[in-house]
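Support case: magnesium ion complex. Customer-provided input:
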Amino acid sequence: MSSAPPAPVIDARGVTKSFGTNTVLRGIDLEVHPGQVVCLLGPSGSGKSTFLRCVNHLERIDGGRLLVDGQDVGYELRHGKLYELTERRIARRRAEIGMVFQRFNLFPHRTALENVVEGPVVVRRRSRAQVLERGRELLDRVGLADRASAYPSQLSGGQQQRVAIARALAMEPRLLLFDEPTSALDPELVGEVLDVMRDLARDGMTMLVVTHEVGFAREVADVAAFMADGVIVETGPPRQVLDDPQHERTQSFLARVL
Ligand code: ADP
Ligand code: MG
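Agent response - structure generated as follows:
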């Protein structure tokens, strides 16, 4: 008996999205499979953030099909028909996806540990006592066990971003999305954040990472995808896409960032 391969965590087929007359996504095809790390590269304005926001239910797609864990984003299938999800059910599905932004967006008046446990307490209605231990474990995992009671202003940018990663992990997501997680950091702080991401990848976390860190993509990604003007123009193993790009847009982009 042959068993079907596991369904992709993200399955985008011909996804389109416009803002008014500005067509930002022109037919995105992308699959992210369980345990895979996919790095999405491309020039500013090509639609990378918009695509991540669609995956995370922050934007609605106009056309094509976008499935996360086999379910249409924003819709549910009942008796063979798609129905729009209520806000409540969207919130429930969003809780399965962790997102890490360029700006860390920590609560400034909460400690690192309080920031990490906020999601489980508010969204999952867990008691604080229950989640504190897990929160400490997560801070330990990102190398910040000793900074649990520090406030964001007392932490470096790299430390704050690591708290943001621990906060995303606290929800036990099926999928982690990263939107240029190191772009706002001073160069000397980039490595510590990439190290944490590399550890997560090694542990089998499914990750879609928008980044300009070509070295990270080459080393960690299973698939590199290059996006320009709302389409993925080139995709494949990182060594192929990054070291031997076939498309002119990929070549000129890499020539600029390397
Ligand atoms: P990238 O992340 O690759 O830099 P974005 O997805 O942020 O690209 O943006 C792609 C295009 O979509 C840009 O032209 C941007 O101005 C436009 N855009 C993004 N979000 C919105 C929005 N909420 N409303 C209107 N236009 C938007
Ligand atoms: Mg962006």
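The mean pLDDT is 94.

Case will auto-close in a few days if no follow-up is received.
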